[in-house]
Design goal:
alpha+beta; Immunoglobulin-like; six-stranded mixed beta sheet; 3 helices; elongated; disordered C terminus; tight junction; integrin binding; JAM-C; Ig-like domain-containing protein; immunoglobulin domain
Length: about 300
């Protein structure tokens, strides 16, 4: 009986020793999201420790490369003047930016503890609100043709999703689910911001704008008017006839001009191959004779 009691006391003391004299850390959230320009606190809670003044360090790990954030009791690196340590070991980051997205490691070392070191890893992702998207809306479209409206922005994080509006009314993903848009033949893509009309109808005319949205917020472009015109066969035929008449008049004009000699061209054979005329008063001496003849004015 005494032996069993002694064994129990030994196990209990061993357990208390292991629990008490060991650094143990925990966090409330290992995957943290924060909106840009807001503050966020990364929790590093010390559940167990015996050393009175443990060494606390924070490191930022980005692209696999670690750098100090809190070292030798002061904030350093790109968080200098923008972060502070809260008791016991929490890291408060003020005015977070997209460059703060990284892994953060809290390290606590206690030389008086049997387990003198522990660390915990926390992921921080900074959400960035979308900027005003670039919207492309055609000014005019012919009824019965196809067309595409485009919307895009590249600053938001996570990636933005897009939604189109016509006359301040949201276009449903499937037009067949709405009485107002039932006859439309468009297809939307929320990831690329595309709005395609297979066959444009007169009812599709209106003011269109696009909205980019993610978990951090949303932004929209200014409304742009898209007009839809009927396909006018009579006008097209009139333009064709006018073009034919203009061609005929131009041809007749050229023929009349040529007939009156305005466009006549001289025969090159008449000018290029005429025998040059020489003045009878001048001597015409060939090159070969020039070496052996003297002019008449030469006196011996």
């Amino acid at each position: 009986m005494a032996t069993a009691r002694q064994t129990f006391v030994t196990v209990l003391l061993y357990s208390l020793c292991c629990v008490t004299f060991a650094v143990i850390l925990r966090t409330t959230d290992k995957d943290v999201w924060a909106n840009e320009f807001e503050s966020i606190e990364l929790s590093c809670l010390i559940e167990s420790i015996s050393t009175n003044n443990p060494r606390i360090e924070w490191k930022k790990i980005k692209n696999g490369v670690p750098s100090y954030v809190y070292f030798q009791n002061k904030i350093s690196g790109d968080l200098e003047n923008r972060a502070l340590l809260k008791e016991p070991a929490n890291l408060l980051i003020l005015n977070v930016s997209r460059s703060d997205s990284a892994m953060y490691r809290c390290e606590v070392a206690a030389i008086d503890d049997q387990k003198p070191f522990d660390e915990i890893l926390i992921s921080l992702a900074v959400r960035v609100k979308p900027v005003v998207p670039r919207c492309s809306v055609p000014n005019s479209v012919t009824a019965g043709s196809s067309t595409e409206l485009r919307c895009m922005e590249s600053e938001g994080y996570p990636l933005s999703h897009y939604q189109w509006f016509r006359n301040n009314e949201e276009l449903p993903e499937d037009p067949k689910t709405s009485i107002r848009f039932y006859n439309s033949s468009y297809v939307t893509n929320a990831e690329t911001g595309s709005l395609k009309f297979r066959i444009v109808r007169k009812e599709d005319a209106g003011e269109y704008y696009c909205q980019a949205r993610n978990d951090a917020g949303y932004a929209k472009c200014s409304p742009q008017l898209m007009e839809v015109y009927d396909f006018d066969i009579g006008m097209m035929l009139l333009k064709i006839v006018a073009g034919v008449i203009a061609f005929i008049l131009l041809t007749v004009g050229l023929c009349v001009a040529q007939k009156h000699g305005y466009c006549s061209c001289r025969d090159h054979t008449e000018n290029d191959y005429k025998v040059p005329q020489y003045d009878s008063g001048k001597d015409c001496v060939s090159a070969d004779e020039g070496h052996f003849r003297h002019k008449s004015s030469f006196v011996i």
